[in-house]
Write a structure and sequence with these properties.
two-stranded antiparallel sheet; about 170 residues; 5-stranded parallel β-sheet; 4 helices; Rossmann fold; alpha/beta; adenine binding
């Protein structure tokens, strides 16, 4: 199966000059979703994973599917003030400013082995901030998964400690 057949490019979204990679066609097709999940877990054979962590919001979609496939729990990383219990925050820079993400302080136990997932790796700022949060809580990042990686933005450089697995490269 060719997953690129299920990715739609939307020109000038969310602003002029950006070519947005839309995973909605992938989500609509259950066979393509099943294939994507199977490809994302392939590289984990023989690895013990305690939890899957997904980054808001599209990282939740496949993050939950990965957690169910692996038979383990799921932890959300969200934007500020979206989680109800005590949180740990991490600020990071974007190409056009800065942002912050949060995780529940009790979501990760020291020494837990984690799979981090998001839909897209662009500049790497969000994923790097998520890795910092997980490490502050004592988690060990086994792998970081993405559906799509925009190679020309070199976001992988911001994840030097992590094994990175991306299904589609542009």
């Amino acid at each position: 199966m060719q997953l690129t057949d299920y990715i739609r490019t939307i020109p000038d979204f969310p602003k002029p000059g950006i070519s947005y990679k839309d995973i909605t066609p992938l989500l609509i097709n259950h066979k393509a979703c099943e294939f994507a999940v199977s490809e994302l877990v392939k590289g984990l054979k023989g690895q013990h994973i305690d939890k899957v962590v997904g980054i808001e919001s599209r990282g939740f979609l496949f993050g939950m599917l990965l957690a169910q496939t692996l038979g383990i729990g799921f932890v959300p990383i969200r934007k500020p003030k979206k989680l109800p219990a005590k949180t740990l925050s991490q600020a990071y820079d974007l190409e056009y400013g800065s942002d912050t993400i949060e995780i529940h302080k009790d979501a990760i136990q020291k020494g837990e082995r984690l799979l981090l997932h998001d839909d897209l790796l662009a500049t790497g700022g969000t994923a790097a901030a998520a890795c910092q949060l997980l490490e502050k809580l004592g988690g060990e990042i086994v792998q970081v998964n993405f559906i799509i990686e925009l190679d020309f933005l070199e976001g992988r450089k911001h994840l030097p400690k992590a094994k990175v697995n991306s299904l589609i490269h542009y």
